[in-house]
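Tokens for chain A. Residues wanted.
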């Protein structure tokens, strides 16, 4: 997974984040966990957050998911990357 971001890690205007899609099979079908970020109004998103110094993307994903949902998870596979520009940096 780290190979995908090696080209941008050296740039100071890039903020790395990591997270995941948490799914659970129930009698009613698959449920997906989303987070309501009150800081941003009515925004709903997947659990994620900034990678700390000397932390891998995988370690950051586990930590952020636990912090934001309380769930202990198993990472199954890599899904995708996303990037967008903010006023201050590329995330």
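Reply:
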């Amino acid at each position: 997974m780290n190979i995908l971001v090696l080209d941008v890690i050296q740039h100071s205007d890039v903020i790395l984040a990591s997270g995941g899609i948490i799914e659970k099979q129930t009698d009613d079908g698959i449920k997906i966990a989303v987070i309501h970020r009150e800081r941003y109004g009515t925004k709903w998103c997947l659990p994620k957050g900034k990678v700390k110094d000397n932390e891998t993307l995988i370690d950051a994903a586990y930590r952020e998911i636990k912090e934001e949902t309380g769930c202990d998870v198993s990472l199954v596979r890599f899904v995708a990357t996303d990037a967008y520009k903010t006023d201050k940096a590329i995330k």
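Residues 57-69 form the longest helix (13 residues). Confidence is low (pLDDT under 50) at residues 1-6.
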